[in-house]
Amino acid sequence: GLIRSVQKFELCFPKLLNASCKKQMRTHFEFILSYVTLSSITVITTTLNLLVIISIAHFKQLQTPTNLLLLSLAVSDFFVGLLMFFQIILIDGCWFLGDLMCTLYYVLDYTITSASVGSMVLISIDRYMAICDPLHYSTKVTEKRVQVCVCLCWICSVIFQILVLSDNLKQPGRYNSCSGECVVVNNYIAGLVDLVVSFIGPVTVIIVLYMKVFVVAVSQARAMRSHIAAVTLQGSVKVTAKKSEMKAARTLGVVVVVFLICFSPYYCYCVALTDNLLNPVSAAFVICLYYFNSCLNPLIYAFFYPWFRKCLKLVVTLQILQPGSSERNIL
């Protein structure tokens, strides 16, 4: 049979009576499960991304333009991990840190999301240049230019989100319906601009660039096939070409698909939020998925690289503290 759960409520601020928000009462099991899940994701996300940051920042050999973009992504993902601490505070639905902290939390959250998406766009531009214009790659994509792009990405994210949330910053807590609530509200136009600038635009750029990269990778595989076909038997070559085409498709597919799977529901949730279309359970799932992407990024980008495993060993065994360790041969 069905077990009926009766919702009981307590107040966030019992002394304020009617002005206080209601605390959502959960079973002991639900509370522990939420707490353990969020805490685990926080620890794993911050630890993995911190390892990426230490590795790239410490070893001079790793400070290439592409890795500087991975460093930017790792920094934004590291902050996402730290921000999950506030989600843990909000487990029972009450915010105790005041209205200003609530607004700043959202500004920080949105800024980091924008910077993360921006870093993904820069990574896709970098891969596009490397595969589609390999002859001019080293002259066009320099360390200095990448540093400037990364700084601009972060500065623009901060300015843009302050503008989007300006109403909430002028008067923190103006949209709260009761004490202990933490909400920010954008006007329709600001929300629409944010959706286009922070999600639809970047995602379109990423998909278009990766499609072009994929087309070039496939044509390179075909060129290799016809080259080998001149020297070898036709039969065995078809298999090789198929494999290389599939490999190109898979690698690029993983990168784009994981990002879209984790981010798309979050932006749909932000749109649905204004119409209260989602129940708390699906909202929690969407937010966890969005945060989980920051945990997956170092796995997708870094664990596929043998140098990361080598760095991991050197960092964990504290060998990076030895003099001259930054000059070590990692690659």
TrEMBL record:
GO cellular component: plasma membrane
The family this protein is said to belong to: Belongs to the G-protein coupled receptor 1 family.
Record membrane topology: Multi-pass membrane protein
Pfam families per UniProt: 7tm_1
Higher taxonomy: Eukaryota, Metazoa, Chordata, Craniata, Vertebrata
Superkingdom in the source lineage: Eukaryota
Domain G-protein coupled receptors family 1 profile: 48-301
Protein name: Trace amine-associated receptor 13c-like
GO MF annotations, alphabetized: trace-amine receptor activity
InterPro entries: GPCR_Rhodpsn, GPCR_Rhodpsn_7TM, TAAR
Origin species: Sander lucioperca (Pike-perch)
Primary site of residence: membrane
The entry's keywords: Cell membrane, G-protein coupled receptor, Membrane, Receptor, Transducer, Transmembrane, Transmembrane helix
Subcellular location: Cell membrane
Transmembrane segments: 32-56, 68-91, 103-125, 146-165, 195-218, 252-274, 280-304
